[in-house]
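Forum > Structural Biology > Help requests

Title: Can anyone predict the 3D structure of ABC transporter ATP-binding protein?

Hi all, first post here. I have the sequence for ABC transporter ATP-binding protein but no way to get a structure on my laptop. I'd be grateful if someone could post the structure tokens.
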Amino acid sequence: MSLVICKGLSKSYGDKQALKQVDITLNAGSPIALVGPNGAGKTTLFSLLCGYISPTSGDVSLFGHKPGSAALLGRIASLPQDAALDPNLDIISQLSFFATLQGYSNKAAKAEALRVLGLVDLVDSAKQKPKALSHGMAKRVSIAQALIGSPELVLLDEPTAGLDPANAKKIRELVKSLSGNTTFIISSHNLDELEKLCDQVLYLEHGQLRHSVSMNESQHEDYLTLTMQHCDPQALIEAVLNLADISSIEERQSNQFLIKHNSEQVYAIEIALLNLLKDKNWQYKAILKGRTLEEKLFS
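Reply #1:
Sure, ran it for you. Structure tokens for ABC transporter ATP-binding protein below:
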């Protein structure tokens, strides 16, 4: 059974159509990215999946049930971007309360609250109130709240927005560690982060699904993305074009080049490219098999 199915899903607010005939089928597994400009319909889609609002037309189901169904209690969770903690209650009391709403006894709720705080390395902060926490710690507590009951599907809206690199890394590592049992759908503007974390990327624009990209496709693409430390672009382009089986090379942004080839030999182009860079004493930063997510979405 598919995790999420949307068929002709549309949502209007008066004269404004936030979503237009969106068709999506998602299966359980690795994290899924939801990207698009502000106003693209990402938050509306999340709200529909959670059952907070109803569609104007079309159908949506999760695990074969309608959003908001009692059958989904404890199976899905959501973290809105601007989720706020109650400033008057300590962390353990808040998380324990949310656990009781899922049917836990008082004793079991406290144990579950401590478990999810352990996942985000904040057990030592359990008795603190939100005002005593940094922004990054408060965000991690909110994520812990979304993990109560070990839901099968978790929707995260900008989970690392405004976080310092250390806290953002902790959240990425947490998502990776839990992805064996929980499927995450992550809305974010950080394409570099999503490229490392997600296997599938959905791109919404003006309420419509413009792209659905599998990051695993890079294994079958006849492209390499070369990022240099610094270089003479024209000299590099001319040298690469002289290699065997090179179809084209373009500088897509400063010091980053997209190379198209027609070699059928595994690693042949990579080896030839590395030998060229060694012979010329040119320093590179990265060689990516395939195209970047940005290139896939906007080229």
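The chain has a mean pLDDT of 91. The radius of gyration is 23 Å.
Shout if anything looks off.
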